[in-house]
UniProtKB/TrEMBL annotation, chain B:
Record Pfam families: DUF1980, DUF1980_C
Keyword annotations of the record: Membrane, Transmembrane, Transmembrane helix
Annotated InterPro entries: DUF1980, DUF1980_C, DUF1980_N, UPF0703_membrane_permease
The name this protein goes by in its record: TIGR03943 family protein
Taxonomic placement: Bacteria, Bacillati, Bacillota, Bacilli, Bacillales
Transmembrane region(s): 6-23, 43-61, 81-99
Residue ranges of every copy of the DUF1980 domain listed in the record: 9-116, 194-329
The UniProt record lists the keyword RNA-binding: no
């Protein structure tokens, strides 16, 4: 970190600007898609339809949640508003969380880009999918079994009014439905957007002030390499479609297991999406969820390293 | 929702829309977003514009606003102080975008991110032993080298005399080199480029560029070329290379050492990573960071920070204009 304000700092500031705005611009299409789909769901899909589609069996429900990403390949920015909307319409918490966790990984786009980045080691791409499934599956069951209270933030208006929407909008014509989709989309854009901007800001500050070399020094050693790669995944907050290319640049320095911990942990939990989740879930729930993700990803990637890659 | 909120929100949405539009007009969108993602960002701009219109409409036709909010939301009823802070958060990136210049990531960021001199690193990790399987290519090479060195002299003369007809010169050199290859039995070339399933496309590309007298690292296939050179470094030692990029330096470089390279971007500049070649040049001192240059030199190897990497001994270096597209991207047609 530097403190005097010279030419070098102007460059640092410009780099910060580039990274900050590039994360925002990159996230815009996805967050807009997310809020628009969420608004469409809110206006056009009833609680009954959701209830009919959701499997009664929790294990089946979790499995369906894990593979929702195959049908709706979205990244985390777009997913959070949609999941909230689905939950308000009656989708159980555990399925929503499983989709938030597995959706950004178990989808065709992410598989393809991981396969590309590790062309010589397709095992990495397959293991990434398997680890993501395992982690989401276990967490889904834990949530089903142990978390009974509703962790959704109640403060926002949407919760209270959800009930009316179903009936009232039926009588509306297409034009006014379109307008109410816009109203919802705008409202949600502001709700999610402030966390996105804040997350992108911190991520950009870290990227321009802490150098990779400084980080790698921390990450030397058996355990610390996992912690380092997971920490890196957390602060970089990259899109799951591009993080495999970053991971591959560490291939000579770190073990396959620790690369996998990066590839699975990052999309499930990072700075940007923690802040975005804060917009819909209570803080206590996010802490519990983060701990679960952390522990399960850590141990399962160490396990896969020792059983398969060693 | 009061008219005030509508007009502020309209400004915010319109601000983001205008920023994307202006970036695109100036051709600077590529400094933030990879070309393959640009379409989505432009579609997002359209969406932002529509939402901006929606808020404008409500601002202008106030009564209608209440009718449409039939769900009874108090859409933005948090305290006015809180909503001012939130609006400030949204205006900050817009102002930052418009008021400060758009710049290219350069040497400082390259140093920060850590340069990847060994672009094939992820390919090499499979079986480090595979390298030892490659038959020492020295004897094969030396023969070729001698003939080629003579030809190189010719090549350079051709190149400088009519630099306009570069393609012609290249064709010529390819013709010449194909003669050399015929001297080199097919299986020797295969030994030189021994490959496995996952490195096969690089081996094939390697065999192709091996026949060129000067290996030109083209920008549309930049990463792939560097990866090939790195992967089959033994085969390429002594060959001529031409590469362009900006100058940067990494920690641990000596006074006569520097590097030339480009940033590779996957989705957005947040994932940009620098790739380049390690250079040795007596007069390195007089070449400053971030200058764009084309260098011509001979491929060699060195060890840097415990990695065995490609090194180029510079024969010729010249300043160039920064290219219109500063970053390089994965070539998705490679090997197809």
């Amino acid at each position: 970190m530097r403190f005097e304000w010279g030419a070098e700092n102007i460059t640092t500031f410009q780099n910060f600007k580039t990274i900050f705005l590039s994360i925002l611009l990159e996230a815009f299409p996805f967050i807009l898609l997310g809020v628009v789909v969420s608004s469409l769901l809110s206006v056009f899909v009833s609680e009954k339809m959701i209830a009919r589609l959701i499997p009664k069996n929790p294990v089946l429900g979790v499995i369906v949640g894990c593979f929702l990403g195959l049908i709706f390949p979205l990244c985390e920015c777009g997913m959070i508003p949609i999941v909230r909307r689905l939950m308000l319409k009656g989708m159980p918490l555990y399925i929503g969380i499983v989709y938030i966790l597995s959706g950004p990984i178990i989808n065709p786009i992410v598989f393809a880009s991981t396969y590309m980045a590790f062309r010589n080691q397709p095992e990495i791409a397959y293991s990434r999918m398997v680890l993501a499934f395992t982690t989401a599956f276990i967490i889904g069951l834990i949530i089903y079994k142990f978390i009974k209270s509703n962790p959704l933030k109640a403060a926002q208006s949407s919760n209270v009014h959800e009930h009316f929407h179903g009936h009232q909008h039926h009588q509306q014509n297409f034009a006014s439905k379109f307008v109410s989709v816009l109203a919802h989309a705008s409202e949600e854009f502001f709700e999610m957007g402030k966390y996105l901007i804040f997350g992108a800001f911190i991520t950009a500050v870290i990227q321009v002030t802490v150098s990779r070399a400084e980080l790698v020094e921390i990450g030397e050693g058996e355990w610390s390499s996992y912690l380092f790669m997971m920490g890196l995944g957390y602060i970089l907050s990259l899109c799951s479609t591009s993080d495999a290319f970053i991971a591959s640049s560490f291939a000579t320095t770190f073990s396959a297991g620790s690369l996998l911990s990066f590839l699975v942990f990052g999309p499930m939990l990072d700075l940007k999406n923690t802040l975005m989740m804060l917009s819909i879930f209570k803080t206590r729930f996010i802490i519990v969820l983060s701990l679960l993700i952390f522990i399960i990803v850590l141990f399962s990637s160490i396990l896969i390293q020792n059983l398969y890659f060693a | 929702m009061s008219r005030f909120h509508h007009i502020v929100k309209a400004f915010i949405f319109f601000g983001f829309f205008a920023y994307i539009l202006v970036l695109d007009k100036k051709g600077d969108l590529q400094l933030y977003i990879a070309p393959r993602m640009e379409l989505y960002v432009k579609l997002a701009a359209l969406g932002l514009f529509i939402v901006a219109l929606y808020h404008c409409y409500h601002f202008l036709i106030r009564k209608q606003a209440e009718v449409h909010c039939d769900c009874g939301h108090n859409h933005a009823s948090p305290s006015s102080f809180k909503s001012l802070i939130i609006y400030a958060i949204f205006f900050m990136p817009i102002l930052l975008g418009f008021l400060t210049p758009d710049t290219i990531l350069g040497s400082q960021m390259a140093e920060q991110k850590g340069v990847n001199f060994s672009s094939a690193s992820s390919l090499k990790t499979v079986e480090p032993s595979s390298e030892s399987q490659i038959v020492e290519p020295e004897d094969v090479l030396s023969e070729v080298e001698r003939t080629e060195d003579m030809l190189n002299g010719v090549e350079i003369i051709i190149d400088t005399s009519n630099s306009n007809s570069e393609t012609e010169a290249q064709e010529l050199s390819e013709n010449q080199s194909s003669e050399i290859v015929t001297e080199l039995p097919e299986e020797d070339l295969d030994t030189l480029f021994a490959s496995e399933t996952f490195t096969e496309i690089y081996a094939n590309y390697g065999k192709e560029i091996y026949t060129h007298d000067i290996i030109r690292v083209q920008e549309d296939i930049y990463l792939e070329t560097l990866t090939t050179l790195d992967l089959f470094l033994d085969a390429f030692i002594g060959k001529q290379i031409e590469i362009s990029g900006f100058i940067f330096r990494a920690d641990g470089m000596k006074e006569n050492e520097f590097a030339v390279g480009r940033f590779a971007v996957q989705c957005c500049s947040a994932d940009a990573s620098p790739y380049g070649v390690f250079l040795e040049y007596e007069d390195a001192k007089s070449w400053v960071d971030d200058e764009w240059v084309t260098i011509m030199g001979t491929i060699d190897r060195t060890t840097f920070n415990d990695f065995d990497i490609i090194k180029v001994n510079i024969k010729e270096i010249k300043r160039i204009e920064a290219p219109a597209e500063p970053y390089v991207y994965t070539n998705y047609d490679f090997g197809l």
